[in-house]
C-alpha cells in the first residue's frame, strides 16, 4: 500500500462518470491523472507523452508480456492501457491518482492493487440512463440496446466496487466523491504510521 | 444492519472528542443523540427521560441482566449506560445516531453492533495532550499521569477503530467526521437495496 490514494470512478456509458471526474479534479486539482498508452495513431495536435504514450503493436505486446500494465483493453482494434510504473511512482510519492474507467478496467486495477478505492456511478434509473444515451443522438437503436444490456450486466457485479453513487446531480455526485477521498484518508489502516509514531513518543516519555 | 448509521466518536480525555461531537451536531443537526440511563441522583433541573433515564441500582442491574444495554460502565460508584432498544429503533427508522464515548464504551458498541462506524480522535502528540489536560487546571499530578497512561494503552488498541482523526483544529476535525459520515452512506454494501431495485427495473424492461 502506497501513501497516495488510487481512486477509480466507474459506471456505464451515460451515467456521467466523465463529468463527475472533471468536477472532482476542479475541486481537488492536486490529484494526478495517468497518461495512457495506446497503439492508435496520434490525432492532430496530440503530443506523445502528454495525451498518450503512442506505441506500436509490437511494443504494446511486449509491455503486456512484461506485466507493465495496471489494465489494458482493446477498443475498435486499438489497444489502450494504463502503465503501472508511473502510477505507482506517483502513489509512492504521496500523490493521489484518479481514473475514470469502465468496469473491466476497474476490475483489473483492483486485482493488481487491492487498496484502490473503487466508486461506481449510476443514473437514478435505467429509464434515465436510456434517456441520457438517447439524448446524445449518436447511438443507433442496436448500440443503445447493447449499452443498456452491458449496463445491467455490469451492475449485477456491483460487489466489485467499494462505493456507489447515484448521479442525479453531477455537482452533488462529485461532492460525494470528494467526501469519499477525504474519508478514506482517515481510515485507521492508512494511518498506522502516524499512530505508531505517537505510541513511540509515548513510550519514550515514560 | 439498519438503514441509519451508528457513529461513535472516541478518544482519550483531552483530545477534544466532546468539542468535535458538538460541532458535528451543528453541521448535521438531523443526527440523533441517545439518552443515557444512570443510577446517579438527578441534579437540579435535570429531567428524567430528557437528560437521563434515572433508575435505581436494582432496576439498572435488571436491565444489565436482560441484555438491554449497548454499553455500560461504572463511574465513581454510579452506573451509566446506553439502552439498546431506543437506539436500534432510531436506526431502524433511518436516523443516524452518534455517540461520544470512551474506548471501553466504543468497544462494547462495536461488539454488539459491528456495523457501527468508530472514529478515534487524538491530539497531534502526547505532549500536546498533556498540555491540554494541564490547561484544564483540574487535574492533579497523579490524575494527569493516569490519564496519559490510559491514553497510551488505549491508542495501542487502535485497530479497534475504523477511522483516525488528528485533532489539530476542531473545525477541521469535525469536517472530517462529516466527510466520513457522508462517505459511509455511499458504501456499496449499504446501498444493496438501491442496486437491487435498479436491477429489477432492468430485468423487467428486457
Q: Could you give the order of the helices and strands of chain A? A: EHEEHEEHEHEHHEHH
Q: How would you classify the quaternary structure?
A: homodimer
Task: Enumerate the strands of the largest sheet of chain A in spatial order, edge to edge or round the barrel.
Answer: 6-1-7-8
Strand count, sense and barrel status of the largest sheet of chain A are:
4 strands, parallel
Q: How many beta-strand elements of chain A?
A: 8
**DSSP summary: helix tally of chain A:** 8
What general outline of chain A do the C-alpha atoms trace? globular
The helix/strand class of chain A is: alpha/beta
Largest interface: A-B, 40 and 40 residues
Mean pLDDT of chain A: 94
**Alpha carbon gyration radius of chain A:** 19 Å
Strand content of chain A: 15-25%
Distance between the termini of chain A: 32 Å
How much helix, percentage-wise, in residues of chain A?
A: 40-55%
- Weakly predicted, low-confidence segments of chain A: none
Give an overview of the whole structure.
By secondary structure, chain A is of the alpha/beta class. Helices cover 45% and strands 18% of the residues of chain A. Chain A has helices at residues 17-27, 57-65, 84-92, 103-112, 126-135, 141-155, 170-185, 192-204, and strands at 6-10, 36-38, 52-54, 69-75, 78-83, 97-100, 117-122, 163-166. In chain A, the strands form 2 sheets. The first copy, chain A, has a 4-stranded parallel sheet, sandwiched between helices. The first copy, chain A, has a 4-stranded mixed sheet with strand order 3-2-5-4. In chain A, helix 1 (17-27) crosses helix 7 (170-185). The longest helix of chain A has 16 residues, at 170-185. The first copy, chain A, is globular, with a radius of gyration of 19 Å. The interface between A and B is large, with 40 and 40 residues.
Amino acid at each position: 500500500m502506497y501513501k497516495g490514494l488510487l481512486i477509480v470512478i466507474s459506471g456505464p456509458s451515460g451515467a456521467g462518470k466523465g463529468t463527475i471526474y472533471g468536477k472532482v479534479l476542479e475541486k481537488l486539482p492536486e490529484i494526478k491523472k495517468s497518461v495512457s498508452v495506446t497503439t492508435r495513431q496520434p490525432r492532430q495536435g496530440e503530443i506523445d507523452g502528454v495525451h498518450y504514450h503512442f506505441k506500436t503493436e509490437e511494443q504494446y505486446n511486449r509491455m503486456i508480456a512484461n506485466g507493465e500494465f495496471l489494465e489494458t483493453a482493446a477498443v475498435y482494434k486499438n489497444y489502450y492501457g494504463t502503465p503501472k510504473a508511473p502510477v505507482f511512482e506517483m502513489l509512492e510519492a504521496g500523490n493521489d491518482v484518479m481514473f475514470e474507467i469502465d468496469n473491466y478496467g476497474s476490475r483489473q486495477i483492483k486485482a493488481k492493487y487491492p487498496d484502490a478505492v473503487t466508486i461506481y456511478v449510476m443514473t437514478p434509473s435505467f429509464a434515465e440512463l436510456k434517456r441520457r444515451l438517447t439524448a446524445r443522438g449518436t447511438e443507433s437503436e442496436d448500440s443503445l440496446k447493447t449499452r443498456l444490456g452491458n449496463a445491467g450486466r455490469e451492475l449485477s457485479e456491483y460487489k466489485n466496487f467499494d462505493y456507489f453513487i447515484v448521479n442525479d446531480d453531477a455537482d452533488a455526485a462529485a461532492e460525494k466523491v470528494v467526501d469519499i477521498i477525504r474519508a478514506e484518508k482517515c481510515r485507521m489502516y492508512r494511518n498506522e504510521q502516524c499512530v505508531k509514531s505517537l505510541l513511540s513518543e509515548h513510550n519514550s516519555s515514560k
